[in-house]
Amino acid sequence: GPIHVTFPAKLTMEEVERKNPLVLEGGKYRPPDCQSTHWTAVIIPHRSREIHLKYLLYYLHPFLQRQQLNYGIYIIHQAGDYTFNRAKLLNVGFKEAMKEEDWNCMFFHDVDLIPEDDRNVYTCDRYPKHASIAMDKFRYKLPYKTYFGGVSALTPDQYLKMNGFPNTYWGWGGEDDDIAVRLHLSHYVLFKPTHIHNQIQKNLSGTSTRNKLYCYRFNLLAKTRRTWKQDGMNSLEYRVLSKEYHRLFTNITVDIGTDK
Ligand code: UD2
Predict the structure, then answer these.
(1) Which of 64, 146, 175, 219 could form a disulfide with 169 if both were Cys (CB 3.0 to 4.6 A apart)?
(2) How far apart are CA 207 and CA 119, in angstroms?
């Protein structure tokens, strides 16, 4: 049922670690008393949002364990202070996570969204799923019908069929709409759960710095139909700078280039 999400002021990462003794190195987990057929990788694009990350892990680990999934949490950290590129980081996350395990479901997850109900099941469906249809920041309604921001869930096959996500959106905005168009062009019906409690998320906004608005996003969006087959997983270039196995997550720091 519902999870009462609060943000305890004195929470430390050490405390979150103590509360999750069964999590294996790198933020991986296997249910100790059953064999799960679900292998879910949670991919989180990240830079300078440590406080959000701490609260997310505080809620996400016990939440996923209650669902008895095999899971792993991957933080894809963009190196340097060039303009952020959420979708490209998600592509990197997919590629790096698949090198480690045969995941059968990928959850692409903003760092500041916390599930508010246990009926948000972190497994994949027959169709790509928008897994944050009701967020407190939008008063639990979608801002528009095709909105695809926040949290989404795709199987590796679904993801590869749409050539992953675009690499070319630097800064805030547009990439989520591009992904929605790709889904349509790959002939997928988008799955949006109908029961609101299935996908509700609390947004942890607040102190973080604003991502630079991407001014050319509408120009790119207008061309998605022509570009999606060339821009995506098949054109992804990056350099892994480090990979660290922390207690509650795997951190992969990457150089993904710049928009210059
Ligand atoms: C909204 C969407 C997001 C995406 C974005 C447009 C929601 C809840 N989220 O995000 O999915 O579509 O609009 O690009 O509707 N991040 C960092 N460091 C940064 C910048 C971004 O870690 O400096 C990551 C982080 O995981 C964050 C995500 O990117 O949650 C989205 O960025 P945001 O929180 O700045 O933007 P927001 O909430 O408007």
Answers:
(1) 175
(2) 29
Q: Is the pTM of this model over 0.90?
A: yes
Indicate which residue's Cα is closest to atom 33 of ligand 1. 211
Nearest CA owner, ligand 1 atom 4: 149
- Tell me the C-alpha distance between 42 and 250, whole Å: 10
CA distances to 56, 167, 208, 211 from 5, in Å: 10, 33, 19, 25
Q: Is residue 210 predicted with pLDDT exceeding 60?
A: no
Tens digit of each residue's pLDDT (9 = 90 or more) over 89-127: 999 999 999 999 999 999 999 999 999 999 899 999 999
Fold assignment, 23-204+212-255? Spore Coat Polysaccharide Biosynthesis Protein SpsA; Chain A (3.90.550)
| Model ipTM over 0.95 | yes
In the reported structure, the alpha carbon of residue 56 is separated from the centroid of ligand 1 by a whole-number distance in angstroms of: 14
